[in-house]
Amino acid sequence: MTAQEFDFSDHSHRRYNPLTDSWVLVSPHRAKRPWLGQQEAAYKPTAPLYDSKCYLCPGNERATGGQNPKYESTYIFPNDYAAVKIDQPPLPKTDPDKDTLRNRLFNVQSVRGNCFVICFSPKHNLSIPQMKLSDLIHVINAWQTLYNDLAREAREIHKPYKYVQIFENKGTAMGCSNLHPHGQAWCLEAIPSEVSQELKSFSKYKHEHNTDLFADYIKLELQEKSRLVLENESFMVVVPYWAVWPFETMIVSKKKIPSIGNFNQTLKDDLASILKRLTIKYDNMFETSFPYSMGLHQAPLNATGDALNDSWFHMHFYPPLLRSATVRKFLVGFEMLGEPQRDLTPEQAAEKLRNLDGEVHYLEKF
Q: Looking at the domain assignment, is residue 80 inside a domain?
């Protein structure tokens, strides 16, 4: 190789993220350095089918004194420690037109809402890759029901709900305090910043190019295939060109669907299938219960106009593991003070994920 030939798999470069109007620094040569830093304890699933001390298991008492029913499928209940609440006093009145330093610099909004816990399964020792497809359909049905119920409450009884963020933190490495398979949903009277920025980017792209950002992105990824991990009739999984986390992925609906509220049975079946295959690949990567933060991005509740027309259902997976079950990526130093940085290129990460079994979970081999 001559000095003039640029190698994306070896030379530093920045990649643009059109969803968030931001950049990520890619330094692939750094992946060759020896690791002498923090190592996590590798998690092996040894939990029982039922844990009498678990606040989320069927029939058990929760931390605040309430009791779970003996549920047999996916179960949703209001979070006992909600980050936002419906009932709270209004902010002190101020004159927004008055030009003061406080008004300029100390902007504040009251935020009301509600939070929910979504127990994926009554079985304490299961995670998404270990669940049956029929059980995953129950989870997706629960997401859809919650989305549609909250939208109806906002329309009909004027609850201050504008957006519901559905997500899962899996594993202690992602701050999960209870390993029972569960996710959460936070419903706010404001659209969260990440989603709001995506919607702005979608609108800007359509205004400039007269097409949808994701329509073009899907076309390009399916042509190049170097970052494609999985696909079926309805969805594709890619390591985004602008990915920050080592094995970050995104599930994107191939056709424009604003939200899970619009899903038919075929879409639910296909989402369950690709969710299971992707998370099996994650677990098989380092033969561990792979930690991640995962979330759905979709249309705001009761969206109209551009917010509805620009929305495109997709899911983000942000897993922290870097090169083994015990070595994780930390966003520190330059990442916090400058911009996000990654060592492994998205193409290298996609190839590793693509080559892993997505049908048989590693535990089934023993």
A: yes
On whether residue 328 sits in a domain, the answer given is yes
What are the strands, taking DSSP E only, across 120-162? none
Is 37's pLDDT higher than 80?
Answer: no
Sorted by sequence, the CB contacts under 8 Å of residue 110 that are 6+ apart come out as 88, 90, 91
Average model confidence (pLDDT) across the chain = 92
Write out pLDDT tens, residues 251-265: 999 999 999 999 999
Of the candidates 326, 336, 171, 340, the residue with the CA atom closest to the CA atom of residue 243:
340
Find out whether 63 and 80 touch, Cβ atoms under 8 Å.
yes
Which amino acids are annotated as binding site for Fe cation, given as ranges?
198, 297, 314, 316
Residue ranges of the annotated binding site for Zn(2+) are: 54, 57, 124, 180
Q: Which helix (H) or strand (E) holds 187?
A: strand 182-188
Q: Which domain holds residue 325?
A: 43-87+109-353
Cα–Cα distance list, 217 to 81, 156, 191, 241, 302 (Å): 39, 37, 24, 10, 26
Counted domains in the chain = 1
CA 200 to chain centroid: 19
- Phi, psi angles (nearest 5°) of residue 295: -155, 155
Q: What CATH number corresponds to the domain at position 282?
A: 3.30.428.10
Report the relative pairing of strands 182-188 and 13-17 from DSSP bridges: unpaired
Q: Is 182 assigned a catalytic role?
A: yes
Q: Of 13, 138, 158, 182, which residue is the catalytic one? A: 182
How is residue 213 written in tokens? 């950002």
Binding site members for UDP-alpha-D-glucose? 30-33, 63, 79-80, 169, 175-177, 184, 329-330, 334-335, 341
Q: Would you say 129 and 279 are in contact if contact means Cβ atoms under 8 Å apart?
A: yes
pLDDT in tens, 51-105: 999 999 999 999 888 899 999 999 999 999 999 999 988 888 878 778 888 888 8
The answer to whether residue 104 is domain-embedded is no
Q: Which position has the higher pLDDT, 329 or 314?
A: 314
Q: HSE of 53 in the Cβ direction (CA atoms, 13 Å)?
A: 4
